[in-house]
Amino acid sequence: MSMTPPTPIRRHRLLEAIWGTQPGLGRLAAVNHNIVGKRFMMTAFVFFAIGGILAMLIRAQLARPGHVFMPPEQYNQVFTMHGTVMMFLFAIPMFEGLALYLLPKMLGARDLAFPRLSAFGYWCYLLGGSFIIGAMLAGVAPDGGWFMYTPLSSSTYSPGINADVWLLGITFVEISAISAAVEFTATILKLRGAGMALRRMPIIAWYFLVTAVMMLVGFPPLILGSILLEIERTFGLPFFDPARGGDPLLWQHLFWLFGHPEVYIIFLPAAGVISTVLPVFARHRLVGYNAIVLALIAMGFLSFGLWVHHMFAVGIPHMAVGFFSAASMAVAIPTAVQIFAWLATLLKGRPRLDLPMLYLLGFFFIFVNGGLTGVMVAVVPFDWQVHDSYFVVAHLHYVLVGGFVFPLMAGAYYWMPLVTGRMPIYHLGRAAFWLIFVGFNLTFLLMHLTGLLGMPRRVYTYPAGIGWDWLNLLSSVGGFLTAIGFALFAVDMLMQRRFGQHAPRNPWGAESLEWSLPLPPPSYNAASLGPVESRDPLADRPDLGREQAAGQHYLATPRHGWMETLGVEAVSGRPDQLILLPQPSLVPLWTSLATALCFLAVLLKQYWLVGVGVPLVLGCALAWLWSMGLREDPAPVPIGHGESALPHPGVASQPGWWGMALLLLADAALYASLLFGALFLWVVAPGWPPPALLGFSPSLILLALAGLLGAPLAGALGLAALRRGRVGACALLSLLGAGAGLLAAAAVAALPLWHGAPPASHAYAATALVLALYVALHAALGTIMALYTAARCQAGYVSAMRDLAPRNTLMWQGYTALCGLAALLLLQLWPWMAGAGTTP
Amino acid sequence: MTLLRRLPGVAVATLAFLLWSSAFLLLYVAVSLGCAWGWDQPAALGLSLQRWVLLGVWAVHLALLGTLLAWSWRGTRWGSAEDAFRPVLATGGLGLALAATLWCGLPVLLASACQ
Amino acid sequence: MAALWWVMFFMATAILLGVCAVALYTLRRERRGRGLHVGRFVAGWGVAFPVTALAVLLVIALRTGEGMLPKPGPEGALRVAARGQQWWWSFTQWDAAGNPVHSAGELHIPAGRAVDVHITAADVIHSFWVPRLTGKLDAIPGHENVLRLRADTPGIYEGQCAEFCGLQHAQMDFRVIAHPPEAYAAALAALATARPDPAHPGAADFAANCASCHGTDARAKSAAPNLAGLAQRGRIGGGTLRNEGQESVLLWLRRHETLKPGSREPSHAALDDATLARIAGYLETAR
């Protein structure tokens, strides 16, 4: 580097000026992972407290038989909200916050791949969550159970807006989950320290990676289900109505296709915390790193083969049920591998019973208990007995509290010195542990028995004298003890922040990168980014923290006000680009507000407002994208250690490309769920074949094919022209692609609109319409992207080297063409084979 | 085969479990379609057409995974810690996926198809 | 089933205590175990042991499950029907001549014989569960599920809806009454004739106010619970009240809106107390 390196203090000031967030209203523009991560975690904790209060209301109601504490309509809202809040507003966002906060620090980066996306995700989460809680305070909370089974949640049996609040609010919150999943996957694959090969990543990054990919595939089925149910409720399209060719079981499949992977999406990050924290207190490196990574991949897949075990009692053939029963047992093996790897780590080391370790011991008892009852409910005939009884309530709380809350509390005590720079105060933490541990087991151990004695779930009252009275009373007492314990925990956290002793650097003697940072870490994490030579970087370089502060490593000298971090080759971890991150911005907030407007408009049935909201969202998104990129080709710049790298706009495998690819993976999961739904209704639902099939229309098919295939063809030719340096030709071809997209959208949408039966008449017509609209929507969005690409070409943001816009647009157009072909096959080949003639 | 050796371990493990997913999905589809289309009547050698299809789907996936495992096994040099990462994920992943496919298909032998 | 449960229970307890004991043991200062071969430890306890245990469990589970399926057998199962609706169960039994006998809240079966319950739903999803007889099976609109059960000894078996079905899911109980096999035909015949006395002064009030929904003839279906044999039922209102005679029925007629809020039964505010008492008295003769 040409200029003289600054002193550590001056470097800190320079970096802070670049990375820091403005005070006052500037806080609304914050995109830094330190801030957004903490916001996520604190908001999630508030929702946890709300969910806990709801749990106390449930226990108050059930303490005595025939107790009149709440009327049934209120009780049903309370238990529905307890499940909904804990699953969607606490567990998943808490993981998101933890990963947001920790990932860059542990990977040796300065921030995540898409900081503005983190901020957007946070605002969506906050707005969607507030929306649901607001509805509860207004007395119109969802009351159909957190699983929202149809037809109970259909407009016939739930006419109010309660169910719409759930469907729209949760879908809004899911946007943040999908954003986070895209963000984490791209970050873990690309934004790491120099030399951090996949095989050297901190183990928790593997857990987060598997979890994030599972979210990309696991959440879309629920999003699809929610959209279909909302369409059914609003416009009467009968996807779940058996009288018109729909099937209530389709909802259950879509819900649990999400719902079971969800359990592992919650457990895996917490298990990652254990694999990180336990070795530190065992004073021995984690045993079986490789085996654990393999176990994680196995769990990631197997957990998608379990969903029907929530549906053993719906009357599915025994063999099909058997596959899911077998898979449910198989998933115990990778779990057991982890448990015994942790035990082996403890056996090889010299464990010390610090506060985090105490919570980990609590985890062992509670989670293993829940895992074992999990194997029991995987046994089909046993499940037929205990399904939907309090036995299952006990099981799921053992798994979720044991598998998520306890490890996270261990993690909270472990990482609090990092967040606050202060050490825990021990006495309160121990008291909280024992209250929670004893209270929890009193509440839920007994519930196994209550369930075996035949008490069903979700009842607002029960008769006296059948042996459930004293069990429920003790469960309620235990519940209140647990609540007091959690309150103590919260007090302890506040006390530590206020009164704890200042923590020395790396207070636990850990060997992972986050402990190389000053406590609490500055906005830019490390002043220079240290190299990674093994799985335990602080063991190789105990003095890494000082070296980083002294600027001895990568990216030590701030320049041009750039927010710089390293991008690496995914597998080897060799630096392959210099990633320039975007500045703080209000655009994420505006985008989420515009999105909220759309959701509110649908909820309040003011559809004209959607016409305002959608252009606003699109406008915000385009403004967001437009503000990034370079107007001239970058040249390689020095990055330290005598190496140089190209800024990311000039690199093929830049994060933006990964972002689009991962988004399409989630999109494909949604489309696959839709195809599954169509096939499922056709095979299983009553009332098929439909009275009338879609008319066969050769002219529309030809137009649709021309548009669908023309768009990516134009995109590919444009990219080829760009490679030869002809930016203008690329812009023109993009415009051509935009026209082709429009043609495809119109032709595909026209198919069911002109040649189909009224969509409310039968699930076939409804499914055909939704399939066509899915493709048409994608073609139309492709048009907008192609127009954007043309404009970017004109404005000088695109060159043979800076080709992200045309490449991503082409990826989208290609995906749309594939989806369109599949839809045309299903919609037109099938009626044609059925000999339905040309027009109805 | 050389491609298999060149892929990163995590890609091989993913491929292996994608094959498991394919087996699982096709078995489930074959049960559902078979029952819907009445393939559950005895057809040949005392077994129904449906059960033959199920056995076929299962066997093809086992054979595929078995072959890949054998290929991967021959080229595997185990090491320790970081060096063992690729072989554990690649060869171990194929072995685990094979075992999982075998395990999850057991109901084909033990359960009624349409009841 | 019970044996399966106890085996699983003791195995699970042993594993749980074992894991916790090892975890606690590691905290001891003086211990051996440094020589532990971790590969063998994890492969043995984390893989080999659970695979073996689960393989045994899977085979037992599938075989037990097979044994519970409603397969055609040599003796032939008796067919009955159960229909769940918000928030009560209607049942249909068939007598030897094949004529239906409808009832509400009480299902009559012979003891000692396999019975196939054909389960359907009228509105939302419910679940048919008699914990002491067998596992549960859902009642799903658009589908018919068949549950095989058998009561070995005559008696009364309590049942309830096990799938959340809305406001009054909690008060959707029913009973399965298992009669001695030789007495089953007589029990059905008695139910078929257990109509209220048409000469009772309440008959006209009932006809004017209740009969548009409630039937009193077990031979005919009715939209609301069939009241034939009401006087002999153990409970009314889907388990809301114990049936202790005319007084209980009257209490229900007066206060059902607070006893079971949301129930589809319309308000009786327009009827005076004397009318309600006459109706209760009339129904008391349905035996």
TrEMBL record, chain A:
Name of this protein: cytochrome-c oxidase
Pathway the protein contributes to: Energy metabolism; oxidative phosphorylation
Known EC number: 7.1.1.9
Catalytic activity line of the entry: 4 Fe(II)-[cytochrome c] + O2 + 8 H(+)(in) = 4 Fe(III)-[cytochrome c] + 2 H2O + 4 H(+)(out)
Gene name, Swiss-Prot/TrEMBL: ctaD
MF terms in GO: cytochrome-c oxidase activity; heme binding; metal ion binding
NCBIfam families in UniProt: CtaD_CoxA (TIGR02891)
Main location group: membrane
TrEMBL record, chain B:
Regions that span the bilayer: 12-39, 51-73, 85-110
Keywords attached to this entry: Membrane, Transmembrane, Transmembrane helix
Highest taxon, organism lineage: Bacteria
Protein name listed in UniProt: Uncharacterized protein
Species of the source: Teichococcus aestuarii
Lineage, uppermost ranks: Bacteria, Pseudomonadati, Pseudomonadota, Alphaproteobacteria, Acetobacterales
